[in-house]
UniProtKB/TrEMBL annotation:
Organism the protein comes from: Clostridium algidicarnis DSM 15099
Highest taxon in the source lineage: Bacteria
Protein name: UPF0246 protein BD821_103144
InterPro entries (UniProt xref): YaaA
Family matches, as Pfam families: H2O2_YaaD
Residues that span the membrane, as ranges: none
Length: 256
């Protein structure tokens, strides 16, 4: 089983890193190609492309200009670099060495710039969401650039696994880069859904759902889970599996 999650817009590059071990991103050359395309854009063009403020455009303009493939300059392991709601739930700073090793083998972070990252892959500060319509040699958006590469990567990643399950804890923006048509037929994609009890009904609340994805990834890593049935025992922060709401491809957890 492999678990996929999304990256985060917010980054943390100053906090102490618990482990110095690192790895190299699989698609570093592809990231370099995208950076070269981004280097051609002005601050205003970056702002329009990403729908961000001028201040953020300026920050990313200089990030692109200074970006290079030197992994020993201004880099940090991905699992310690991202700092959004998912990563607050993941709480990777609390992992011990064996848990980090398990995460390295089983957790994958989808990325608009790097394609896919293992937790210990070194990255530089960046902003490039998967949904961005950046012109490239495969088409007019990042989905076209990455879909074959990433789907094939997942096929190979799961090739030796006994239970060929891809647990999708990524947002739709990122998970839809994987093309089911290219994916091996024996791979099962399972998508957990997290709901809160509000106004006499169960609803998805985005901010809680994001943290819950991280909590589930944490639960899988700390318990070294590799079977679907064991995931259904997830119970952090009051969540419980609801068989009555679940389907073959969607497993639902509720609280409240």
């Amino acid at each position: 089983m492999k678990v996929i999650i999304s990256p985060a817009k917010s980054l943390e590059f100053k906090k102490h890193i618990p482990y110095e071990t690192y790895s190299k991103p699989e698609f570093l050359n592809c990231a370099e190609y995208l950076i070269e395309e981004l280097k051609e854009l002005s601050k205003e063009e970056i702002g329009n492309l990403m729908n961000i403020s001028y201040k953020l455009s300026e920050i990313n303009f200089y990030r692109y200009k200074s970006w290079n493939k030197n992994l020993h300059e201004g880099t940090r392991q991905a699992i310690y670099a991202f700092d959004g709601d998912v990563y607050k739930g993941l709480n990777s700073y609390d992992f011990n060495k064996s848990e980090i090793d398990f995460a390295q083998n089983n957790l994958r972070i989808l990325s608009g710039l790097y394609g896919v990252l293992r937790p210990l892959d070194l990255i530089k500060p960046y902003r490039l969401e998967m949904g961005i319509k950046l012109e490239n040699d495969k088409g007019n958006n990042l989905y076209k650039y990455w879909e074959y590469r990433l789907t094939n990567y997942i096929n190979n990643d799961l090739k030796e696994d006994k239970e060929k399950i891809l647990l999708n804890l990524a947002s739709k923006e990122y998970s839809k880069v994987l093309n089911r048509g290219y994916m091996d037929k024996d791979i099962k994609i399972i998508s957990p859904v997290f709901k809160e009890y509000k106004n006499n009904n169960y609803k998805i609340v985005a901010i809680y759902a994001k943290k819950a994805r991280g909590l589930m990834a944490q639960y899988i890593i700390k318990n070294k889970i590799n079977k679907l049935e064991e995931i259904k025992e997830f119970n952090l922060e009051g969540y419980a599996f609801r068989e009555d709401m679940s389907t073959e491809e969607t497993i639902v957890f509720t609280r409240g």
